[in-house]
Amino acid sequence: MGAKMENQQNDKIGEWLRERIPSKIYNLWFNTIRLESIKDKEITLTVANLFIKDWLIKKYDTLFKKMVEDIFGTGHIYKLEIQGISPESSTTKKSRKKLIKKRPLLLCEFNKEFTFDTFVVGKSNELAYKASIEVSKFPGEKYNPLFIFGGVGLGKTHLMHAIGQKALQFNPDLKVLYTTSERFMNDMISAIRSDNIMVFRDKYRKVDVLLVDDVQFLIGKSGIQKEFFHTFNDLFNLRKQIVITSDRLPHELDDFQERLTSRFEMGLMVGIKPPEPEIRYTIMKSLVAKEKVDIPDGILQEIMMKADQNVRRLKGIITRLIAFNSLTGQEITVGNCLSIISSILPDDNKGDPKTHLRVKTEYIKRIVAEEFGIKLKDMLDRKRKIALARQVAMYIMGNSNIPVKEIAMSFSRVRSTVIYSLSKVEKMLNDGNNPALASKIKEIEKHLEKKESKVEA
User: Alpha carbon of 40 to those of 37, 44, 72, 76, 277: distances in Å?
Assistant: First the structure.
């Protein structure tokens, strides 16, 4: 095709498009279109880059078909290519695919240290670990959604980053997004303020794998929950993988929309428990080996016995010991090791009493809820049928020397309600007409005594 003819055809194409498309859109998306070749009724057009090519095919395929028919005649078809890139042979295509796979599209930053290889596996986390690997291999096909629950510092975030990185290793073409529920909320608020809600939705709904950490942050935030519900639905219906972490089970997410928690429960729920001593020891050994610092086994054993089961805190102790050795040049001994532990982990007698009380009230609520066969979140419900369970929980807290003010805060009630509940249960027990209730309270208190004796031991 001669240059003159090519220019004439390009002019026709430009004129035809400008008559049908607003100038702003034409200048943004269409002004790089050029006629490349005409071969066997196949019209090859080129554009500036892959992004424009994909967008035009997705949005204007029908328009291009009509244009080709009007300008070149019935029976002609079109294809779009990128300018400067010649049609590839099958060999070139294969090598190009390999090149692309080495450079996956990153929608977020992953912590390179949080991989499956660096995750220490034990009985406490084995199921969560294996489920996470399966999800990264077969996103959207197995265990969807995957709901990982467990306490703070036990490795939930580590697994989330590992899933994201491994999924991209298996398939670099995947769009994988890791976020926290707090960031999801902040992004939504920012989008509403800037009138960019569709950009926000595109970010979270046009992915292949969505990893949402600490979903319990959305408790009480009904507007954000509603948006998250629709995001969840869109992805699930498209068979996209969803992984969620929380510090509690779905039915324990107080003030959470039931339609959301029921969806969390329809996939696989796996828990991570506090690590057993040998796992804590292995974690410490791997940290020490990585930093190439000599810490005697006896000291690691001491840390394992003294420190609690929070893996993050355990890592903090090791990091501080390594820093102590590096900055002072002093040898790490049992003495300075214990000093560092006590600065990070104050003993029970020096601990924050308010924190201790809050933990105790939550534990009592959980035990009473189980005994009465109700959900933990129902303890805050104002329904009359829940009232007795709540009053019993308040009564047991009172007997455990928990201040009335703390009890009231725990149930979001006023002091007078707590005092009324205490006196009501006391009266029911003194009447002698409620042996079943008396027996139930005795069982719960016995359970609490056993737990506290274990803690003291």
Answer: 10, 11, 12, 8, 73
Residues 346, 307: Cα–Cα separation, whole Å: 10
Q: Name the nearest CA neighbour of 361 among 418, 426, 436.
A: 418
Q: Apex CA 213: angle with CA 209 and CA 214, to 5°?
A: 150
Q: Nearest Cα to 32, choosing from 18, 20, 12, 49?
A: 49
Please give the structure tokens belonging to residue 228.
């998250």
DSSP letter, residue 215? G
| Separation between Cα atoms, residue 439 and residue 311, nearest integer Å | 39
Calpha distance 67→56 (Å, rounded): 13
Residue type, 41: K
pTM: 0.53
Per-residue model confidence (pLDDT) at position 105: 56
Distance in angstroms (rounded) separating the CA atoms of residues 130 and 209: 17
| Of the candidate ranges 66-75, 253-262, 408-417, 423-432, the one whose mean pLDDT is the lowest | 408-417
Decide which of 2.60.40.420, 1.50.10.10, 1.10.1750.10, 3.30.450.40 is the CATH code for 353-456: 1.10.1750.10
d(CA 29, CA 17): 11
* DSSP calls for 336-397: HHHHHHHHHS--TTTS-HHHHHHHHHHHHHHHHHHHHT--GGGGG---HHHHHHHHHHHHHH
- Torsional sign, CA 410, 413, 419, 425: negative
CA dihedral 322, 276, 117, 179 (to 10 degrees): -90
Q: Alpha-carbon distance 288 to 283, whole Å?
A: 9
DSSP-assigned letter for residue 48 = S
Between 3.30.420.10, 3.40.50.300, 1.10.3720.10, 3.90.76.10, what CATH number should domain 126-272 receive?
Answer: 3.40.50.300
Q: What's the pLDDT tens digit per position in 249-302?
A: 998 888 898 889 999 998 999 999 888 777 878 888 887 887 777 777 767 776
pLDDT category at 446 given cuts 50, 70, 90 is confident
Residue-wise pLDDT for 167-226, tens only, equals: 999 998 899 999 999 999 999 999 999 888 999 999 999 999 999 999 999 988 989 999
Q: Name every residue whose Cβ is closer than 8 Å to that of residue 118 and which is 6 or more positions away in sequence.
A: 158, 286
Structure tokens at 261: 């928690």
User: What distance in Å separates the CA atoms of residue 204 and residue 447, rounded to the nearest whole number?
Assistant: 45
**CA 53 and chain centroid, separation:** 33
